[in-house]
Amino acid sequence: MNLLAPVRRDRILAELPQCLRKEASLHTHKDFHPRVTCACQEHRTGTVGRFKISKVIVVGDLSVGKTCLINRFCKDTFDKNYKATIGVDFEMERFEVLGVPFSLQLWDTAGQERFKCIASTYYRGAQAIIIVFNLNDVTSLEHTKQWLADALKENDPSSVLLFLVGSKKDLSTPAQYALMEKDALKVAKEIKAEFWAVSSLTGENVREFFFRVAALNFEANVLAELEKSGARRIGDVVRINSDDSNLYLTASKKKPTCCH
Ligand SMILES: Nc1nc2c(ncn2[C@@H]2O[C@H](COP(=O)(O)OP(=O)(O)OP(=O)(O)O)[C@@H](O)[C@H]2O)c(=O)[nH]1
Ligand SMILES: [Mg+2]
């Protein structure tokens, strides 16, 4: 990958991509956080022009379609033959968000039990966890909580962004999908994840999903950077305002907003 080459034109985000379902989203704002937009406009993020990157791990049962999902987005390919991932694979995808270069490091992990212990050594330091299940296999949905628990052993649950992704949407009828979606939304709300349903075969929602992952990671990354630089400036922790559209903030965490 040539890091100096311009970002592909179809990887440029000027606006915040919207969630799929409001009731299971990380937040429901229409736009990027005002402090993020402002910092990017004024080139004040402290790291503007430098290389910003987020590590994302993709976990879930064997054969649910993790590799196909990544390949559909990164290479626009689809392979109908199953080739198990052995340990981990890795893809780097470059974006430009609000004029700032940003990359997602996508770690595609093995779902097979015998490769799991190799894969789990790569879980550490993730900014986002994508848990994939097959929309046509309820057992794979039931297993998502265990995948999450394992991934969280290596990460800070308070700062990591969670996505619950139902795959192989092309294989369900609308009625089957509606039933499964109900269960999946329940799980997503319980684990505080944003829910998506995709098909790597048809490409449905794949681009929208990864754009949302990139945007929310970028936003969190810049907010953390602003918080750090603010803290350095005044010698104290600066609170980034919490707000009401963040569905997954607990009542006790919610504070009156003051910054916008
Ligand atoms: N119809 C359909 N089949 C899919 C889709 N995504 C994946 N598959 C098929 O499901 C099988 C498994 O896909 P993979 O992406 O290799 O699954 P995986 O989760 O990476 O599996 P492990 O690497 O073993 O953990 C393959 O035969 C794919 O062709 C999809 O969206 N629709
Ligand atoms: Mg795989």
Automatic annotation (TrEMBL):
Family annotation (NCBIfam families): small_GTP (TIGR00231)
Annotated GO CC locations: centriole; cilium; Golgi apparatus; phagocytic vesicle membrane
Keyword Metal-binding: yes
GO molecular function: G protein activity; GTP binding; metal ion binding
One Gene Ontology biological process: cell projection organization
Enzyme class, first EC level, given as a word: hydrolase
Gene3D superfamilies according to UniProt: P-loop containing nucleotide triphosphate hydrolases (3.40.50.300)
Organism taxonomic ancestry: Eukaryota, Metazoa, Chordata, Craniata, Vertebrata
Organism field: Heterocephalus glaber (Naked mole rat)
Subunit organization: Interacts with RILP. The GTP-bound form interacts with REP15.
Annotated membrane topology: Lipid-anchor
Recorded family membership: Belongs to the small GTPase superfamily. Rab family.
Protein name (Swiss-Prot/TrEMBL): Ras-related protein Rab-34
Cofactor: Mg(2+)
